[in-house]
Specification:
The chain is α+β, with helices and mostly antiparallel strands and 243 residues long. The chain folds into two domains: 113 residues, Alpha-Beta Plaits (2-Layer Sandwich); 120 residues, Alpha-Beta Plaits. It contains six helices and twelve strands. A five-stranded antiparallel sheet has the order 3-6-1-8-7. The longest helix is centred in the C-terminal third of the chain and has 20 residues. It is globular and about 45 Å long. It comes from candidate division WOR-3 bacterium.
């Protein structure tokens, strides 16, 4: 289930490259206006959603800053209907109140509930919406290049990490102890990306790739995000084709 929130600003603006934190603040404002803030944010574990911001047609990268346009949006996804309902209702309340992001007045212009997409296949061609991030829990976070892993590093090791991380999140978020196979089988396009995030850096990738697994686990990564840090604006996928 997916919801698109459209914002309307007053002008083209320049903000810090570490922009995902602003949208995380927006999500906190939304859930503060529902009954789920404590449930969603009290535990430093896995968030029951994924999201991806769109920074407008005027988006430009300018050294340590980025230029964003007037018309922004955020695509929010979750496989939990309670989360979706509370998010929708929270945004409705903010639409009437008005909000501030990066110390500027921003209005919620519209809210769109997108059609539900049910995956029935065991192979799906996905495209990243933003950046995907995956880490190897056997490697120290201080070892930046090896802690974060992308498919072109070593696809076999990547798929082991993907299997472990995805099933760990699946069990936590669905309360279902089943184990599901999942792996990337084909890379059509891939680009390594290093981005600023919470005053540090994260290594990830974007592109088009084929993922093979049970329909349940493919639905899970579509609904809750692919990889890790999905609650921080990474990992949202678009379905190009069920194979």
């Amino acid at each position: 289930m997916r919801i698109k929130v459209l914002f309307e600003g007053t002008e083209v603006q320049t903000i810090d490259k570490d922009y995902r934190s602003y949208f995380i603040s927006f999500l906190k404002m939304v859930f503060e206006r529902s009954n789920l803030y404590h449930e969603v944010f009290s535990k430093k574990k896995y968030r029951p959603y994924a999201f991806s911001p769109y920074l407008g047609e005027d988006f430009r990268i300018e050294e340590d800053k980025i230029q964003i346009g007037k018309n922004l949006s955020i695509l929010f996804a979750s496989g939990d209907p309670v989360i979706i309902t509370n998010f929708y209702n929270g945004v409705l309340k903010l639409k009437n109140e008005g909000i501030k992001l990066w110390n500027k007045d921003i209005k919620v212009k519209d809210i769109e509930l997108l059609p539900y997409r049910k995956i029935k296949s065991t192979r799906v061609l996905f495209k990243t919406m933003g950046i995907c991030v995956l880490s190897d829990k056997r490697v120290s976070a201080k070892d930046f290049e090896n802690f974060y892993i992308i498919p072109s590093d070593d696809l076999s090791r990547f798929n082991i990490c993907l299997y472990e991380r995805t099933n760990e999140r699946f069990r936590y978020l669905t309360k279902n102890n089943e184990i599901h196979p999942i792996r990337i089988t084909y890379l059509k396009e891939l680009k390594e990306v290093v981005v600023k995030h919470y005053n540090g850096y994260v290594r990830g990738f974007k592109g088009i790739f084929e993922v093979e697994g049970s329909p349940e686990i493919l639905q899970f990564v579509y609904d809750f995000g692919f990889g890790v840090r999905t609650g921080q604006g990474f990992g949202l996928l678009e379905i190009l084709e069920e194979l």
